[in-house]
Amino acid sequence: MKLLSFILLLCFLSSYGQSYTTQWYNMDNGLPQNSIKDIVKDQYGFIWLSMEGRILRYDGSNFVQYKDFKLKNLSFGDFYGNIKKDSISVFNNSEKSTLLISQRQPHVIPSNILNSGSLGNHKVYKQLVKNNITVRYVPFIDSYFIKTDTGAYYFENNRIIYADQKTKKNIKIDLEFSHNRLKRLFVHGEYVFIADTENRKILQLYHGKYSYVNAPAMYNDSETKMYWQQITGQVFMINHDKIYKSEFSGGKLKLTYLLEYKDIDKEISGAMFYDEVSRKLYIGSSINGLKILSLSDFSVSRKNLPYQDEVCYAAIPYGNNSILTQEGIRYYRDKSERLYKAPQSYDKRYIFQDDSGNLIYRENNSIHIRYKNTGFTKYDSVLFKRKEIDGLYKSGGMYMASVLDENRFYLYIFDHDNFNKVERIIPCEDNIDTVLRYNNDLLYLGGSNGIDVFSLTQNRIIKQIGKNLPVKQIIKTKDGNIWLTTYNRGIYWLKDKKVIKVPTDRSDFLANAHYILEDKNANLWISSDNGLFKINKNKLLQYMETPKGAVTYYRYTKESGFLNNEFNGSAAPCAHMLENGEFVFPSMEGFVFFSPQDVKTYFPETHDVFVERAKVKGKMITIKDSLYLECGYKNAELYIDIPYYSDLENIYLQAKLVVDEDSQWINIKNDKTFRLGNLDPGKYNVLIRFLSKDGTFVYKNFPIEIEAYFYQTLIFKILAIGIVILILIFIIRSRTNFLRSKNKVLKNTLVRKDKQLQETNNKLKNESDYQKKLMESISHDITTPVKFIALLSQELTQSEDLKTQKKYFDSIYKTSEQLYKFTLSLKEYTELYKQVDTVEEYLIYDLIENKKLLFEEIAARKNTFIYNFCDHDLKVKVNKNILLAVFHNIIDNAVKNTSDGEIIITSVSAQSHIEISITDTGSGMSEEQIAYYSGLFKKKENEHLIFKNYGLGLHMVVQLMMKINSEMAFHRNTPKGTIIKILIKI
User: Which of 45, 771, 837, 900 is the most buried (most CB within 10 A)?
Assistant: First the structure.
């Protein structure tokens, strides 16, 4: 069994461990002192550090210091208590009070640590809550004890006594046990283990009984250093700079390798804590401060050759887990080796393999072919005299080269892998930086002026995409989508032969993105000049289709395990997906290897945001549910406490003071502080948001109230306004009394004169309106007959035919006679706008017939007939002159607009009104005119009508119809013409 354990140990030690990055805090960059006694993480996610004279709380970005305690001895030591119960205490010997950390705050509470755990005698007891190489077991301590949930173990007088918590009995364990053996003690839950390095066995104590168990040999190795902290339940084994985490499950002890840290022997003197959530190992030293070792999912492989840089560009996948460069260096995840000797290459940007596995790359103006069957030791060159090879490309089974010849670019397409034979030469206007064979016919040629689409069958460029866009790489993902990276212009999505800009990251680092790889979970991994970015492709495409919300990228930097944030991308190929599923990206310091499915993203929980501290007038205060600011404050700082141990940029932590809908979000920096300027008194809300693991924003609202000065309060303003009003009233009343007596004399005279002027003004106004309307009515009604007579007279002078002349004379006679009769009634026109009511009844037929005779000859001239089909017995009791004027205008308009047609006038009697319909087959009214005139009757006061330039007649008719409280309706006639219905109320 011992031999098996030793073999397992050797296998374990030879395994490859995690790479990590280091953060170091000391008095020079954040810590008040370099001595750290203990480390623990509370249930809210905050890291607490015990120091000399103070306690620190760490949230991943900042340290909050607590030191103003009413204690005589501030020599804080180890943490103990129960994390799940939110009860963490700090040892402070010689004090009858202790420090309790609860609800994210430390408080002093009464306690008696020296007597706790006593067996009822006068001995000195000390509780063990931590074990490391610095622990000293001094002789004046009579008994050391360990508490578990079910009881306590007391180590005294070379014996072990178990005090059962339930039965209250003390059980003596039949073992000799010296205090020196406590240095190898650790606890997993209810199980107490003590390693015996001399006998190579592990003593196990459980519920007052002991036994010996098997464990990996490292537990009993004398070279192994041990660290145990009871409150965290963590046990670490350190052997030859390698750190392991001990676990106990299924009744067996086992070790999990974390990392190798060469300085661990110097820094283990303080405390250790491993945060499994953020995968960070915290090492506290008594002299060197705090070091945080962050385990990385990324590995950087370098060649480590003297006098050679580590700048990496193009490579090819070689085997299932490595890549190969043209220098002959084969890179694995954790190492590199040279396959063949080659000088350091001048050009590292282009390389590919042909179908035989030979390496193809460029060197100045030559193409080099290294043969695989010789172990790449032999090679041939194809020289392009007086030409420069700008790039080499392999896409869709085609081998191509971009060649510069006398300041003109050409794309050479070779006869498969025969580089001495050029199958086709494509002249290009601009340089070529990338080539993608889209299908069997089309080549996408990307350069500084966008993409030229070349058709192999048509042998010409058939389309240009993204003109003036400096294209760096064209990437086609497995779903067929095409993405473009550019020089300083960001990423573009190619859809329907058009480029669409992809939203950039918050810091615009993706403006110079390099290459994109897609993993099995549809995540896009994007290398750039400043970090590696990750985003879900489906969410990105959904946003591109329907922009809603925000595009959020997750950025990996040197803190994630890179040696340099700058990746390289102006090469082909510049990213790789290996057979084992690993991705490889070239950087300025080596190739970055990682398995995308294993790389973690870190987000805080939805409830992990606390607003409990603020600084007002330079003084730190504790707040709970709101912040109340007294009047006179000039600025305040609100601290947003959120335990997050990764790059704060990835959670998009923002806040804003909600004043109106246009309030802008402010990015919260690493200090996690939101600053409030000088605001007006009132109640406000600070809205905080951050990104959660499901990709949505979590919001927290925090109210703020600002006290007002007495002169800013509502009561003061009301009183001030009231006083001003009273003063104004007093002044007005005084002035009024003074003027009242003076104006009284003039009042009677003014009233009398005013009445006279008002009467005169009304008379003049009525007379003016009357004359204006009278002239408009007369002018409009006689225009058509006079114009017709004038026209017949002109034609009479031009005709020599006696019959025609007689016909003209006859028409002139009839029209003149009717016009004469009309002029006889002009006297009634003078009363047109004054008369309203009448007691006489008139036949509708007669009134229509009167106007028919006036316009009959005019209509006949236009080959139009007027028919009067009104009821001979239908009478109406309305103003006769108003009706005549209305009929005159409507029939006049019908005659003017009708040729070779007919005008039909009918009447219908209903219970409430009489309807007279005048229908013509003329040119008709437009929809706009019909809507306009119909709308005039919806206005209540005709004197406020604003008339369009459609003619005077109908406007006059509208006014007259309103005067007699009647209406008109306008309709289209089918197939042409207009129907005007006059509705006269009975």
Answer: 45
* Rounded distance between C-alpha atoms, residue 530 and residue 201, angstroms: 52
Question: Could you tell me which of 129, 128, 131 has the C-alpha nearest to residue 227?
Answer: 131
Indicate the fold that domain 610-712 takes in CATH: Immunoglobulin-like (2.60.40)
Span 214-246, pLDDT tens digits? 999 999 998 899 999 999 999 999 998 899 999
pLDDT at 40: 96
Strand partners, 536: 523
Q: Is the pTM of this model over 0.85?
A: no
pLDDT at 774: 53
Q: What pLDDT was estimated at residue 829?
A: 54
**Structure tokens belonging to residue 561:** 């395990």
What separation in angstroms does the CA of 661 have from each of 656, 657, 690? 11, 11, 19
pLDDT at 433: 93
Residue 977: name the closest of 926, 920, 914 by CA.
Answer: 920
Strands lying side by side in the sheet with 418-428 = 388-395, 398-405, 408-415, 418-428
Q: Residue 805, SS3?
A: helix
Res 114: pLDDT:
41
Closest CA to 682 of 711, 702, 655, 712: 712
Q: Which residues of the chain have pLDDT under 50?
A: 1-17, 113-116, 770, 940-947, 949
Predicted confidence at residue 814, as pLDDT, reads 64
Listed in sequence order, the residues at least 6 apart from 477 whose beta carbon sits closer than 8 Å to its beta carbon are 483, 516, 518, 524, 537
Q: Are 591 and 321 in contact (CB under 8 A)?
A: no
What pLDDT is stored for residue 885 in this prediction? 81
Euclidean distance between CA atoms 296 and 182, whole angstroms: 35
The CATH topology of domain 834-985 is Heat Shock Protein 90 (3.30.565)
Q: Exposure string (b/e) for 505-539, b if CB count within 10 Å is 16 or more?
A: bbeebbbbbbbbbbbeeebbbbbbbbbbbbbebee
**What are the C-alpha distances in Å from 659 to residues 256, 676, 687, 714, 922?**
53, 12, 11, 20, 65
Instruction: Say which amino acid occupies 623.
Output: I
Chain Cα centroid distance, residue 239: 49
CA distance 633 to 614: 13
Percentage of residues in the chain having pLDDT higher than 70:
87
3-class secondary structure, 158? coil
